[in-house]
Write a structure and sequence with these properties.
By secondary structure, the protein is mainly α. 43% of the residues are buried. It has 24 helices and 10 strands. The chain has 3 domains: 224 residues, no CATH class; 55 residues; 85 residues, Alpha-Beta Plaits, CATH 3.30.70. The strands form 5 sheets. A two-stranded antiparallel ribbon has the order 1-4.
């Protein structure tokens, strides 16, 4: 009878662990599907930006900074309130970052308490700094939001790298006679079903990838190091989870065998406290339940506030975070770039650097949907506090006249959701011709590319006749491009298509 009971118990616990792994796998697949779908223009943008709208940290910070509640924020609020019932189950059952870290755990025996518990205070300190900074309209540190990291890395690093690898393989194998047709058919299937027609190219792809890989490599120090010590979203959910209804409990039948402690991915089971755990750190992974041979563990309802731990934020932590936020804001406000603004720091239509700095979540979705690759991550192009926000670089791509995708995909309205007509009338900048580099003006050769490319109904670039001395004697008449800056909206197609090598002869400047 006892053996039958033990077998039934083991079957139930295995079921919960298996269910958790299935949930993680399905969630990861769904998140990846959202990333692939973004930019292919087959689904509504309000659907494809759901991954970012799921983040309570990103949405709460945006709400504090912009003082505006958007209807899309509701879903993150529901997720945050759910932690009052099921604790940090999001981290253990759904979060794509957590799933990736579980895949790359690097340890046979998963968890050993080798690092000081006080290190857990780092994530709470980071959370409070982010929220205080949002009060001062500074969202720079949202680059540490895990859903933002996952979305940005997948959209701007991993998927583009895979796309480039496939492109290189295709170019190599298509020259093999008996493979040509297969490669051609494969390319027709993969584009645009999974990847865009033209492989996307982004600045700082390697930097984004290194940051993501660095988070994974932290697992060498401790399993789920990121979740334990750094993740600000985990800290936010953890604060609510201290009141969670479902909590892990240890029965009197516990024989202190250490198995639950060794298999806890977040290292929250404390042998010094009779193998109890902190509900703010427990991700309800059920590993401990599976390993326990004495049926000494349960996850059951409990209406109580979890006892404080040494790493829980107190008055000193809050005060220090407040001082750090003020200092950070002050340092960014005296940034020399602000004093000497860069005249090529162009922004998406309908927005500006100040608005982006205070509202953008740094998710990178707008870059992913830009059909020409004109939008890139801003690091060196403008002030530091705007790091991670989108910047428009015409030499890499132009703002397509018939496209308003960046404003439609933005989950927080940092780029306003303009309709196409409104977007077409928004001024991004103004084009200026450098006569010393222009083929027509300096070399006296016919070149009217910029005039031909201008998409405006009433062209912003016109041609004027100019007479110049011919090297063979006499005069020649050349059509010279001239910009009508009263009409120009700064879409950048003239700069993008300019045939002059290096810096274009016509460039778009901020106004």
């Amino acid at each position: 009878m006892a053996k039958r009971s033990a077998f039934a118990h083991q079957k139930i616990t295995n079921f919960w662990v298996t269910l958790r792994k299935i949930s993680q796998s399905l969630a990861l697949i769904v998140f990846l599907a959202f990333m692939i779908e973004t930019g292919l223009d087959r689904a509504p943008h309000d659907l494809t930006n759901i991954p970012i709208r799921l983040s309570p940290l990103a949405m709460l910070s945006s709400l504090i900074s912009s003082r505006t509640f958007l209807s899309g924020m509701t879903i993150s609020l529901i997720l945050l309130l759910s932690s009052l019932i099921i604790g940090r189950a999001w981290c253990g059952w759904v979060c794509p970052m957590g799933t990736v870290l579980d895949i790359f755990h690097f340890r046979k025996i998963k968890s050993v308490r080798t690092l000081p518990e006080r290190l857990r205070a780092i994530k709470y300190g980071l959370l409070i700094v982010i929220l205080f900074s949002a009060i001062f309209s500074n969202l720079t540190l949202l680059v540490f939001d895990p859903l933002t990291i996952f979305t940005r890395t997948m959209a701007l690093s991993i998927l583009p790298v895979i796309d480039q690898i496939i492109t290189v393989i295709e170019k190599t194998l298509i020259n093999v006679p008996f493979l040509t047709e297969s490669i051609y058919q494969f390319d027709l299937w993969v584009r645009p079903a999974i990847f865009p027609i033209e492989p996307a190219i982004f600045q700082y792809t390697i930097l984004n990838g290194i940051f993501f890989i660095g988070i994974i490599l932290l697992n060498l120090l401790a399993e789920r190091f990121w979740c334990r010590y750094i993740c600000p979203l985990g800290a936010l959910l953890g604060l609510f989870s201290r009141l969670s209804l479902v909590k892990r409990k240890v029965k009197d039948t516990c024989v202190q065998c250490h198995l639950c402690e060794l298999h806890c991915p977040t290292g929250t089971i404390d042998p010094q406290k009779e193998y109890t755990s902190d509900p703010a750190e427990c991700t309800l992974c059920m590993n401990c339940l599976k390993e326990c041979q004495k049926k000494a563990l349960t996850f059951s309802p409990s209406v109580s506030l979890a006892p404080r731990s040494d790493y829980d934020p107190g008055k000193r932590t809050i005060l220090n975070a407040f001082l750090v936020s003020i200092t950070l804001t002050a340092l960014l406000s005296i940034d020399w770039v602000k004093r000497y603004p860069r005249n090529h720091a162009l922004r998406p239509p309908g927005t500006d650097s100040q608005t982006l700095s205070s509202t953008c979540t740094r998710c990178g979705l707008c870059l992913k949907v830009c059909p020409t690759g004109a939008l890139q991550i801003n690091l060196a192009e403008s002030e530091i506090e705007a790091a991670g926000t989108p910047v428009f670089i015409p030499r890499l791509g132009f703002c397509q006249y018939s496209c308003n995708a960046c404003g439609q995909i933005c989950p927080v309205g940092a780029i306003p959701p303009l309709n196409l007509s409104e977007k077409q009338n928004k001024i991004i900048g103004k084009a200026y011709i450098n006569p010393d580099r222009c083929i027509a003006w300096s070399d006296h050769q016919t070149c009217i590319v910029c005039e031909e490319m201008c998409p405006l109904p009433q062209k912003a670039i016109s041609l004027e006749s100019g007479e110049f001395s011919s090297p063979t004697g006499g005069t020649i008449t050349i059509s010279l491009p001239v910009v009508n800056r009263e009409i120009c909206i700064g879409c950048g197609i003239c700069e993008n298509k300019c045939p002059v090598a290096g810096e274009a002869a016509i460039r778009v400047y901020t106004i």
